[in-house]
Structures are given as structure tokens and as C-alpha cells.
Design a protein that fits this description.
2% helix; mainly beta; Neuraminidase; 314 residues
């Protein structure tokens, strides 16, 4: 097992109290209260207003992190539009080659993948930070699937297709069919990596279904509290994940997964469905655009504040 000194490059300090200005990741022993403490994202998360997008849209694909995000495609009409976000402003960048909405996507602002969409297609494009390039297509054309991962290793599962439980793995070059979902899903939220992910919710009819992906197969897990579809997922894996927004009816609900069960937490200020984005963090995310009967430019940012935590044996 790795030791703290090997990870952080120093030993744990002993302090008569707490440091006046701790930094994220710092751990110390409080000799006054005789407890071990640390500082990081431990507080209760909340949504706050962010900078509006340049163009109103929903049902877009997306990727990135809260301070470096990308959104591409979407409705009200099938679009090739692509926007990036630097944490404070949105910028229109080069368009995709093929217009679409209800597409899937993942990656970063310098390495993103746009996959499938309506009109039903298997078209796949990569973005290198400047322009889009057509690459190998999905084996099964689809829209409204769940997606997560990176441009080196990504997953697309379910959706509106001839085989709505089919899962495909992207290896950086091509798509390969892998283990099927247990339950038909379309329009749900996808979270995680190619070896540790989940899909939640979906439609036909609206569902609370959740399945976990371990890199080899899907396993059914505890359901979400509310049945809905066209939701957004965020998280680095199954230990801590978020889903938010959705439809049936338009929803502002946010639910958090702790690796076992779902808990309803802070709501979005604006109920909506089909808002981006999917991020590799449940601590800092964005809900961008979407629709609640009107297509939106509205952006909300999710943040879990840093706080001091006392470590216990339990």
C-alpha cells in the first residue's frame, strides 16, 4: 500500500490546532483535539448561475470539465454548431462535418468524440482542439444512447437502434461490440470510464433503471428515485456520480450515487431536459442549455465546496 509520503512527498504534519489556510489535499494531525484531519471537497454541493451559451440549444453532445467544456450538435434543428467554455465565456469554434441532434459524445476540448445521432447515423467524428475529422463509424447506427469515457477508450450503450441493448467500445481507432445491457435504455445518463461506468434512467417508458459497467459486463444496481429521461450524468466512476434534469415532466431534480444508492440533493434553478454536459467529476459540473418547451442558453454550475474533514475509523 502506498504511504502518504510517497504520494504527497512529505509526512503528515502535527499542529496544535488547524492550519489557518489549508490547501486542497492537505492532511494534518491536530494535537489539541487529537484527531487526524484533511481539507478538500467535503461540503454540500449547490447549483449557481453560469455564463449563458452563445446559441440556445438542447439534446447536444458534450465533454470536458467545468473550466474547459465543449458542446456540439443539438436541436431545435439538426446542427453542426460547436461551442467551447473556459470557465467564464463561451466561444463558437469550427463546426462538425455532419449535422445531428440526440448524439452521444465524450472527451475534452482538445480531444472529443461525436458519435451517432438523428437523423439515425453511425457517423463518428473526432475533434483535436481545432477541427473535426470523420473516422470509423459505429457498427450500429443509433441516437439517444448513453456514452462515457475518453477518445482513447470510450463506451456507447443502448439508444434508439435496431439493437437497443447493444454496447460498443471505442479504442481510439474503431468500434467493437462488447457485452449487452440487461435492459433496453435510451435517453439515459452515462457516467464514468471504459472500465468503471454506469447508465441511469431512460425512456420507453421512463425508467429508474441503473446498470454498472466494469469493463467486461453490465450489472443491475439500485434504481434512481425518479423515473425520467434525457438526463445528464457526471462523475469519474461509480463510487460517486450525479444525474440531473430530465423529462416526464421537465425536471430540476439532482440525484447523487454513493456507490450503492441514490439520494436526492439540490435542485437545478431551471427545470430542463437534454441539457449538456457529461463530466469526469461529480464535484464540479455544468448543466448547459436544454429545453423546457423553449430551447435555452441558460447555464448552471455545480460545485462542492472545500471543507475540513475529521477522519474516523468508521
Amino acid at each position: 500500500m502506498a504511504e502518504y509520503i510517497g504520494i504527497k512527498g512529505s509526512t503528515i504534519q502535527t499542529i496544535a490546532g488547524d492550519p489557518p489556510a489549508p490547501i486542497v489535499g492537505q492532511v494534518w494531525y491536530n494535537s489539541t483535539s487529537t484527531v487526524l484531519k484533511g481539507y478538500g471537497a467535503q461540503g454540500t454541493g449547490a447549483w449557481a448561475s453560469g455564463t449563458a451559451m452563445t446559441t440556445a440549444k438542447g439534446y447536444s453532445a458534450s465533454g470536458g470539465i467545468q473550466t474547459a467544456a465543449i458542446v456540439f450538435g443539438g436541436a431545435p434543428s439538426n446542427t453542426v454548431d460547436t461551442e467551447t467554455y473556459n470557465g467564464s465565456a463561451w466561444t463558437e469554434v469550427n463546426n462538425m462535418n455532419t449535422s445531428r441532434n440526440y448524439g452521444m459524445g465524450f472527451g475534452t476540448t482538445t480531444a472529443a468524440l461525436s458519435v451517432g445521432g438523428e437523423p439515425i447515423t453511425g457517423d463518428t467524428e473526432t475533434y483535436n482542439g481545432t477541427s473535426w475529422t470523420e473516422v470509423n463509424n459505429l457498427n450500429a447506427a443509433r441516437a439517444k444512447g448513453e456514452s462515457f469515457g475518453t477518445t482513447a477508450a470510450g463506451i456507447v450503450a443502448g439508444g434508439e437502434t435496431g439493437n437497443p441493448v447493444q454496447t460498443e467500445l471505442w479504442d481510439g481507432t474503431s468500434w467493437t461490440e462488447v457485452a449487452d445491457l440487461n435492459t433496453t435504455q435510451a435517453g439515459g445518463g452515462g457516467v464514468g470510464t471504459s472500465t468503471d461506468g454506469l447508465v441511469a434512467g431512460g425512456q420507453h417508458p421512463p425508467t429508474t433503471s441503473v446498470e454498472l459497467w466494469d469493463g467486461t459486463s453490465w450489472t443491475e444496481a439500485n434504481d434512481t428515485n425518479s423515473a425520467r429521461y434525457q438526463i445528464v450524468g457526471a462523475g469519474a466512476g461509480t463510487a460517486r456520480a450525479l444525474i440531473y434534469g430530465g423529462q416526464d415532466p421537465y425536471s430540476a431534480l439532482t440525484e447523487e450515487y454513493d456507490g450503492s444508492s441514490w439520494t436526492e440533493i439540490a435542485d437545478l434553478a431551471t427545470a430542463r431536459a437534454g441539457g449538456g454536459l457529461t463530466f469526469n467529476s461529480s464535484l464540479a459540473s455544468i448543466c448547459a442549455g436544454g429545453t423546457n418547451g423553449t430551447y435555452l442558453t441558460t447555464v448552471e454550475e455545480w460545485t462542492v465546496p472545500d471543507a475540513t474533514k475529521t477522519f474516523t475509523a468508521s
